[in-house]
Write a structure and sequence with these properties.
Layout (H helix, E strand, L loop, with lengths): L1 H4 L7 E9 L2 H13 L5 E4 L1 H7 L10 H9 L3 E4 L12 H19 L5 E3 L7 H10 L2 E3 L8 E3 L11 E2 L6 H14 L1 E7 L1 E3 L7 E3 H16 L3 E3 L2 H10 L1
Parallel strand pairs: 1-2, 1-8, 1-11, 2-3, 4-5, 7-8, 9-10
Antiparallel strand pairs: 6-8
Helix pairs in contact: 2-8, 5-6, 7-8
Bound molecules: zinc ion.
Zinc ion binds next to strand 1.
């Protein structure tokens, strides 16, 4: 692997895996799989939910200690607002509060300044993009745009596309996308919500599907075809190219 690993990183495909919301299923079912294969990603935290989780018995959101386990596994921690509102529907001042307070919460709890933001529900417009751009270097879309197939060297950091992975996704098709990314210098960014073991909800991914996708990604990485990075590091590579 040594020779190939020394090849120009930007001439390979890039893969970034993102989890939105920081909910307990991502901690319980997602993190162990990612850790097992040494695959880092970016976790977008709803900071108000993480604050709340520490005070509840069976919380929907992860506690800050659980979020810190992602950080310690090499993950980037990004912001997904404080209270998950649809940003185009609220005032400038309210948007700034969502952007500022979530960043301060993450910084205080994890001692790491977040530089990436995911809009709740994927909702944005020109006004919200401009405010987000004042506070965060990177912004990911939930759908639309490049649908997750970003061109290395030609990616707008304010509108990084993502491919949504849910119940209906065939892991073989995602594996084929990753192989194409490796061949065509694409930065593929995947977006996951929750994970389930049995009955998956409409936005959830069966944990077995996540495992199949991660196994394929790790194989491509170990073969020197794909570089798996956080969103922050992916954008840095894409911008330098
Ligand atoms: Zn969300």
């Amino acid at each position: 692997m040594a020779g190939r690993a020394q090849a120009d990183e930007a001439t390979r495909g890039l893969l970034t895996i993102t989890f939105d919301d920081a909910n307990w299923t991502q901690y319980r079912h997602g993190l162990p799989v990612m850790r097992e294969y040494g695959v880092p990603g970016t976790l977008f935290v709803i900071s108000g939910r993480a604050n709340e989780a520490g005070r509840k018995q069976r919380a929907w959101g992860m506690t800050w200690a659980q979020v810190a386990e992602f950080r310690d596994a090499g993950w980037e921690i990004g912001s997904h607002s404080v209270s998950h509102p649809s940003l185009p529907g609220i005032s400038d001042a309210e948007i700034v509060r969502e952007l500022d307070t979530s960043r301060a919460d993450i910084e205080q709890q994890l001692h790491q300044r977040p530089v990436s933001f995911a809009s709740p529900y994927g909702d944005y417009d020109a006004r919200t993009l401009s405010l987000i751009g004042d506070h965060y270097a990177n912004h990911v879309l939930a759908w639309g745009g490049t649908e997750g197939r970003n061109r290395i060297g030609d990616t707008d950091p304010g509108q990084i596309g993502r491919m949504q992975i849910d119940l209906r996704v065939d892991p073989e098709a995602v594996c084929a996308e990753m192989r194409r990314a490796a061949e065509r210098e694409i930065w593929l960014v995947l977006m996951f919500h929750g994970f389930s073991v049995a009955d998956a909800g409409p936005y959830e991914t069966p944990t077995a599907t996540l495992r199949d996708i991660v196994v394929c990604a790790a194989d491509l990485r170990d073969g020197g075809h794909l570089n798996i990075v956080t969103l922050r590091d992916g954008m840095a590579i894409a911008a330098a190219h």
